[in-house]
Amino acid sequence: MLKLLNLLKDGRFHSGEELGAALGVSRSAVWKQLQNLENDCNLAIHKVRGRGYQLSTPLQLLDAHAIAAHAQASEWPILIYETIDSTNAEGLRLITQGQPAPFLVVAERQMAGRGRRGRQWVSPFAENLYYSLVLRIEGGMRQLEGLSLVVGLAVMRVLQAMGVEGVTLKWPNDVLVREQKIAGILLELVGDPADICHVVLGIGINVNMQANAQVDQAWTSMRCERGVTIDRNRVVALLNEQLKVELDRHRQCGFAGFQDEWESAHGWQGREVSLIAGITRLDGIVRGVDAHGGLRLEVDGIEKSFSGGELSLRLRDDS
């Protein structure tokens, strides 16, 4: 399907004869592949007798050469998939198969994309960015403290650099625009966190998605905010560069070096919230984050710190 998509991605009409010759198949086989594209990838294709076939809108696919053309310098090896269960899952598989880190996994579509706490990450074909950077971590827990928050800062700066306004962060791993989710982060770890391990930095960014009834929360995208189609290859290149800068800083100074700037970007600073862990709910006021990336919450006049992958933060109904 990817070869056919590359022929159609310019948004122009192509005859069945032309497509068949390029693919080395019959016109009827072209017709079947077009039907598969419509059904499997949810792409609208115009069919006009005498003119041929045309994608309803031009399509830009992820491309290693295009990503490199946008980059200031050579970055990590990149693996690009048409369809995959999850870029994070593939990153974890490749670690066990001996793939040397660092390396990057991206995909046009995820069939089982996931967010925190087992939630589904809706992943339509060729619209958004599904990105997993795999790193080898040495030096113990200090190299992991506040790492998801640092990644959030990097994502925020990329969005700002590409003209998205009003970007804020939400502890511990969401990026918002006017309280609507535009990106999320999922870190997964394998190995010994006290010694040598691998961490997968999973990042999902809503780039060109304009409508999707499957998403069960308020959301926006870069295209919705900017009003123009966004070059996803440029987003990958800028994200690579920003992550490299921030990860180098994090290795040198830990999360403490980011604490003030992260708090200044936290959209829920000073807000009344509920901290939820399973069926337990704790109400308080957000006072910031500590030097390890934990949430500082004022509860009944006493400030406490909380951290953990299963915690969820919600605004109070009366906030």
Layout of secondary structure:
Elements: H1 2-8, H2 16-23, H3 27-41, E1 45-48, E2 52-55, H4 64-70, E3 78-84, H5 87-96, E4 103-110, E5 129-138, H6 147-161, E6 167-170, E7 174-177, E8 180-191, E9 196-205, H7 222-226, H8 232-253, H9 259-265, E10 272-277, E11 280-289, E12 295-299, E13 302-306, E14 312-315
Parallel strand pairs: 3-4
Antiparallel strand pairs: 1-2, 4-5, 5-9, 6-7, 7-8, 8-9, 10-11, 10-14, 11-12, 12-13
Helix pairs in contact: 2-3, 4-8, 6-8
Q: Please, could you describe this protein's structure?
A:
There is one protein chain. The chain is α+β, with helices and mostly antiparallel strands and 319 residues long. The chain has three domains: 2-55, Winged helix-like DNA-binding domain superfamily/Winged helix DNA-binding domain (Arc Repressor Mutant, subunit A), CATH 1.10.10.10; 64-263, BirA Bifunctional Protein, domain 2; 268-315, SH3 type barrels (Roll). 30% of the residues lie in helices and 29% in strands. The protein has nine helices and 14 strands. It has helices spanning 2-8, 16-23, 27-41, 64-70, 87-96, 147-161, 222-226, 232-253, 259-265; strands at 45-48, 52-55, 78-84, 103-110, 129-138, 167-170, 174-177, 180-191, 196-205, 272-277, 280-289, 295-299, 302-306, 312-315. The strands form three sheets. It has a seven-stranded mixed beta sheet, sandwiched between helices. A five-stranded antiparallel beta sheet has the order 13-12-11-10-14. A two-stranded antiparallel ribbon has the order 1-2. Helix 4 crosses helix 8. The longest helix has 22 residues, at 232-253. It is globular, with a radius of gyration of 21 Å. The model has no long low-confidence stretch (mean pLDDT 89).
